[in-house]
Design brief:
The protein has 14 helices and nine strands. It is an alpha+beta fold and 397 residues long. The strands form two sheets. Strands 3-4-9-5-6-7-8 form a seven-stranded antiparallel beta sheet. Strand 6 and strand 7 form a beta hairpin. Helix 1 packs antiparallel against helix 2 and helix 8 runs parallel beside helix 10. The longest helix has 29 residues. It is elongated, with a radius of gyration of 25 Å. It starts with 5 loop residues before the first helix and ends with a helix.
Length: 397
Amino acid sequence: MNFLTSNEKKALYVLAGISVLAILEYTVFDFRIISSSIEDFLSLIVLGFIGIYILTQPKAHQKVKDRLVGYYAVWLLACAAIYLVIYFGCGFFFGFGRNPFDRSLTGILRNVFFFGGAIALKEWIRNFVINKAEKKTVLLYGMIIVVLYTLIEVNILDLISSSSVEEFTIILCEKILPVLTLNIFLTYVCYIAGSIPSIIYMLATSVPIWFFENLPNLEWIVVAVLGVAFPLIALLALMETVNNVSKKKAVKIKNHPKTINFVVWIFVIGFCLVAAFFTAGLLNTFPTVLVSGSMSPTINRGDVVVIKKIDEDTEIFVGDVVIFNAGEYDVVHRVVDIYYEDGTKKFVTKGDANENIDNLSIEHKNIGGVVVATIPYIGLPRLLIESAEYEKEINGT
């Protein structure tokens, strides 16, 4: 190892620590010998020890000056907001499902501590490795950290043990390539601007996932395209931005990096956050696309209806258009009658375009919300990918 510089050796020691974590992932953790909570705790401990070692070493400096870090932090924050809008916007086409994360206070605190802490430590470690490497070895060290982080975050053994070409393709495209591409992007971010912008990006794209009640229910091909295309596009855009900032004609950006297009960035971020909160149901409303023609002409196929969520005390009247679960599907129909059965209030529903009432009566607890607004036709793209079996199932045709 005499051919390595002092800084490269230090980076190599850190990579060895990351390798230990990767080994644990494919041995002790993979065999499920311990609980997932203990796995998360041990992972954080390993990352913490690596972080302590880094803390004792001279700081790894990014390639841009410190006064430009704030500019790139805002750039990455806006990039994260755009990603969230695209991600949650896909819900208009593919629908929304329940968030699998534990959204209780304990679960949220656990996510913040374990996952948030792991994100911060990983990006800090990534920054140390990539910026301690010399110019001739930076690409090699970058490739190693990308591969190690990918191995830690996804289980390559699932790919190796796949039983068919289709399963192999789905695992590769849905789980592995997005993580690999994201790690390439974040490694370049750390190389250029340090760990702070990359931490901001990861937290901005992860925290809403932990808190939101509804998440887009995306097909694997959509997850693959979004997960690979967005980091690559962001990477190319960042490289172009770095190139422009480094040119002499970008003197104004160098002198005033934090004020360039500030109002535009604030508008974009604000719009993105409001749109994401709305689509995720955090504003007590959520959208859904009508794929059935059973409510025509009041509400047509491809219209987006805005649903106001209700609680057990909310009064529902005859004539209200409600959304309720009918087994495999959510149905948007009008309440045409209300009666009591054994002391329980029952609601009879019917589609405006249907001749007969629905063949089941529903209770208040089955109703997810009341339609408060309709936006015509903006959900039409979803109809191109939605199965026609939905309407047949609901209308009994």
